[in-house]
Predict the structure.
Amino acid sequence: MTRAGATGRAAQQFRVSFVCTGNICRSPMAEVVLRTLVDDAGLGSRIAIESAATGDWHVGEPADQRTVDALARAGYDGSHHRARQFDASDFPTLDLVVAFDRGQARILRNWAGSTTEQQKVRLLLEFAGDPSGPQDVPDPYYSDAAMFDRVLGMIERSTQALFRQLAPALRQGIR
């Protein structure tokens, strides 16, 4: 993160993109959870949150209904989501690119145009602070509602940890 310009202008928004395989399960969950956290904290104007996919086969589709249902059971609204594919040309404008598994992280780092852009790619579970725990958030797509709920729980815990790391800088206008 860098400090806002000395001219007194408001800091630019911190930009984060959550990226999973199809942008219909995991990444929309994280986008909704983080947006809720920042909005509840009154910091919504200081951060831009998006989600995307490494693949293009669900572009334009809503989130998987099981995703929407899991989010609703937890008190979130995921009904407005539309899937899109990650565009590598966005790397320069993003501050953080969050992947859900090592395969996605590898793809994103390969798409990055520089070492600086590669360093923006992080795994979501890194923020949970348990280096001995799992590294990947499992893809619930081929599973049942219980797995969607379990995955949402993992995403909530890690996204809350990410928010706790970002919130002080967002409050101070540091990007």
Notes: The two ends are 5 Å apart (CA to CA). The chain has five helices and four strands. The first strand starts at residue 14 and ends at 20. Residues 145-172 form the longest helix (28 residues).
